[in-house]
């Protein structure tokens, strides 16, 4: 398997996926998204896995969003298609038959937060920061953030975070029900291993069926996903997002008029 922007290590029946774009704060570009798709497809054949841990390289970030520098020339159709592709990839993670845990030691923003939310659990380090800052760019989340955030933390707080673009700490994420635990910096993966090893002692079929049943509860609400893809396509082609993305690249504040 040829991976372009991630690495896979398997040890003691746990798969460790590392996002490997430290200089861009592990922003999820096309290469990372393609790797995740390939990984979660191919790992379905590894029957003895008891869990997967996703983390980001470097000191600062789990993933600081989708790669904003790739948005520059997107029209409505491309925006819709990319959003639909992202939904499919993150659904593969959510539907994976063994527990997938996001070990978040730094920024998990935008698509990075959406990736963490598609995992079954999130372990936050003391320096973790979560948020959906897409409105700063004249956008809305495109990888199911409008769907999974309200599901996890409830409508009122989700709307507040989505519209204010506020960034919250790991501790707040636990209080809100977004993350499972906050742990001392550097202990994120160890805590994830502890949980996966505990689950690894249970019956693997029962674990897979339980995950499938929990996911089925949410399948009822899939209509919202299609709405998000459509609106994301519209937003990415808008003047607002052109200004928001240009402002990020030029390192200035966006002027939405
Ligand atoms: N994309 C591309 N590059 C990024 C990036 C990102 N999301 N975040 C950081 N970088 C780059 C910076 O541009 C900088 O690159 P150079 O200038 O060195 O070339 C480098 O990483 C280091 O970042 P900073 O110098 O800014 O580091 P600081 O510690 O000062 O600040 C920060 C860290 C995380 C506060 C800051 O980098 C920041 O605000 N980053 C952007 C956060 C953000 O807005 N994230 C949400 C992105 S919106 C889509 C589907 C979904 C989405 C989009 C499209 N499709 C369907 C197409 C979702 C959208 C998002 O995720």
Fold blueprint:
Blueprint: E1 6-11, E2 14-19, H1 30-42, E3 51-56, E4 61-63, H2 76-94, E5 100-104, E6 107-109, H3 111-118, E7 121-125, E8 129-131, H4 145-153, H5 155-164, E9 168-169, H6 170-176, E10 181-183, H7 188-199, H8 204-219, H9 223-236, H10 239-249
Parallel strand pairs: 2-3, 3-5, 4-6, 5-7, 6-8, 7-10
Antiparallel strand pairs: 1-2, 8-9
Which CATH architecture of the largest domain? Alpha-Beta Complex
Overall CATH class of the largest domain: Alpha Beta
Query: For the terminal residues, how far apart are their CA atoms?
Result: 48 Å
CATH superfamily of the largest domain: 2-enoyl-CoA Hydratase, Chain A, domain 1
- How much of the sequence lies in strands comes to 15-25%
Which overall shape is indicated by the principal axes computed on the Cα atoms?
A: globular
CATH topology-level fold name of the largest domain: 2-enoyl-CoA Hydratase, Chain A, domain 1
What is the oligomer described by this structure? single chain
Provide a count of the helices: 10
Coarse structural class? alpha/beta
How many E-type strands?
Answer: 10
Largest sheet: number of strands, sense, barrel closure: 6 strands, mixed
How are the strands ordered across the major sheet? 1-2-3-5-7-10
Radius of gyration: 17 Å
> What string, H for helix and E for strand, traces the elements in order?
EEHEEHEEHEEHHEHEHHHH
Give the domain tally: 2
Note poorly predicted spans. none
Overall residue-averaged pLDDT value: 96
**Ligands, ions, cofactors:** 4-(N,N-dimethylamino)cinnamoyl-COA
């Amino acid at each position: 398997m040829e991976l372009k922007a991630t690495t896979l290590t398997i040890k003691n029946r746990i798969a460790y996926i590392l996002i490997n774009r430290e200089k861009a704060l592990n922003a999820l570009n096309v290469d990372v998204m393609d790797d995740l798709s390939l990984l979660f497809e191919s790992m379905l054949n590894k029957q003895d896995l008891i869990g997967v841990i996703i983390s980001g390289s470097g000191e600062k970030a789990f993933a600081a969003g989708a790669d904003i520098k790739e948005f520059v020339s997107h029209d409505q159709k491309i925006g819709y298609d990319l959003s639909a592709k992202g939904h499919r990839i993150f659904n593969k993670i959510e539907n994976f038959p063994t527990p997938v845990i996001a070990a978040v030691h730094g920024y998990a923003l935008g698509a990075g937060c959406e990736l963490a939310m598609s995992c079954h659990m999130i372990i936050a380090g003391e320096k973790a920061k979560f948020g959906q800052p897409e409105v700063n760019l004249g956008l809305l989340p495109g990888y199911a953030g409008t769907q999974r955030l309200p599901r996890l933390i409830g409508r009122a707080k989700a709307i507040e975070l989505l519209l204010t673009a506020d960034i919250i700490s790991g501790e707040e994420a636990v209080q809100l029900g977004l993350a499972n635990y906050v742990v001392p910096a550097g202990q994120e993966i160890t805590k994830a291993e502890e949980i996966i090893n505990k689950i690894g002692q249970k019956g693997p079929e029962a674990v897979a069926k339980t995950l499938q049943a929990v996911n089925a509860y949410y399948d009822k609400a899939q209509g919202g996903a299609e709405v998000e893809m459509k609106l994301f396509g519209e937003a990415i082609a808008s003047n607002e997002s052109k200004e928001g993305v240009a402002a990020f690249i030029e390192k200035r504040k966006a002027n939405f008029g």
